[in-house]
Amino acid sequence: MNVRARRTLLFMPGDERRKIEKGARLGPDAVIMDLEDGVALNRKDVARETVRTALQEVVFGRAERLVRINPVGSGLEEEDLDVTLAGRPDGYVVPKVESPEQLAWLDERLTAEERARGWPEGGVRLLAILESARGILHAGSIAAATPRLEALIFGAEDFAGDVGARRTPGGWEILYARSAVVVAAAAHGLQAVDTVFTDLHDVEGLRQDATLALQLGFDGKLAIHPRQIPVILDVFTPSAEEVERARRLIAAFEAHQKRGRGAFAHEGKMVDMPMIRAARRVLARAGEGSSAE
Ligand code: COA
Ligand code: MG
């Protein structure tokens, strides 16, 4: 399975064409044009139209083109899809997912659209945000809901609000939920993307928070301001040395597999499957499209 690098995904309000154009030029792995909480209720129509035309007109380069719709069940999601599908986004980001049924509904709806439009079936991707007690509790079944699902995203602010946690700089109050997202994603071969860092000016704090996310097992982190992109990219992009080490390890592994040997010694350390998986993850973050298995 080829995985695209999702180290940094930049959010922008869907009703702001200027930010969409700017975001596309800043080199994030994905842009997420928002129709949900970043857009006022009386601007939803404008935002849908702005996103549709941006999808048709803006040059996004190598950035994945994603749209965040309103939650399934909100009553706004149908129109979000109706209008934006015409722009053929690469995928949808689904907020406040709490049950696999919500994704199953979307899957069915998208399949019908793909058939009607003559697009390859299953091509429109999904990324689900888990950001409530129920979302975290059902993370495993949500992760298995549909093959369209490529990533789980953790949303700390909504989660903290839902359970009554008070946010602190260290983040102990979100550690359980944050790790639950990584575990559910890993168990189902999905990517895990970490929550936004809301202080737009605290670059050092962002670096520490992103580093913690990397250590916990996340593949990337959401961004909400241009300033955050280089910091997050720097944390999640492996160094040339790390990439070289991962390549050597996988080459040695493949040679030993051919000779029928599982565990082996490489550069003074015992190597087995977990280390190979970690090496493949490094190559995936380097954008070398290796396997996530
Ligand atoms: N994407 C693209 N461009 C952005 C951007 C974003 N998320 N945030 C800011 N910019 C641009 C601004 O348009 C401005 O560019 P310009 O001077 O060429 O017009 C430049 O970067 C500097 O912006 P700045 O003045 O520092 O920020 P702001 O005060 O205009 O905006 C926010 C602050 C938080 C409103 C803005 O960063 C934003 O909209 N973030 C995303 C919010 C969102 O999508 N939330 C939903 C998910 S949580
Ligand atoms: Mg939210």
Description of the molecule:
The model has no long low-confidence stretch (mean pLDDT 95). The protein has 293 residues and is α/β, with parallel strands linked by helices. The strands form two sheets. It has an eight-stranded parallel beta barrel with strand order 1-2-3-4-5-6-7-8, surrounded by five helices. Strands 9-10 form a two-stranded antiparallel ribbon. It has two domains: 8-236, TIM Barrel (Alpha-Beta Barrel), CATH 3.20.20; 240-285, no CATH class. It has helices spanning 17-25, 44-57, 77-84, 100-117, 133-137, 139-143, 156-163, 172-187, 203-216, 228-236, 240-258, 273-285, and strands spanning 8-13, 30-34, 64-68, 91-94, 125-130, 149-154, 191-194, 220-223, 264-266, 269-271. Helix 2 runs parallel beside helix 3 (77-84), helix 9 runs parallel beside helix 10 and helix 11 (240-258) packs across helix 12 (273-285). The longest helix has 19 residues, at 240-258. Helix content is 47%, strand content 16%. The protein has twelve helices and ten strands. Coenzyme A binds next to strand 1 and helix 1.
In the predicted model, the low-confidence regions spanning at least 5 consecutive residues are none
Q: Report the strand count.
A: 10
Broad CATH class of the largest domain: Alpha Beta
> Which ligands, by name, code or SMILES, are bound?
coenzyme A, magnesium ion
Query: CATH architecture of the largest domain, please?
Result: Alpha-Beta Barrel
Content-based structural category: alpha/beta
The CATH topology of the largest domain is given as TIM Barrel
Q: How many structural domains?
A: 2
Mean pLDDT: 95
Strand order of the largest sheet: 1-2-3-4-5-6-7-8
The topology string of helices and strands comes to EHEHEHEHEHHEHHEHEHHEEH
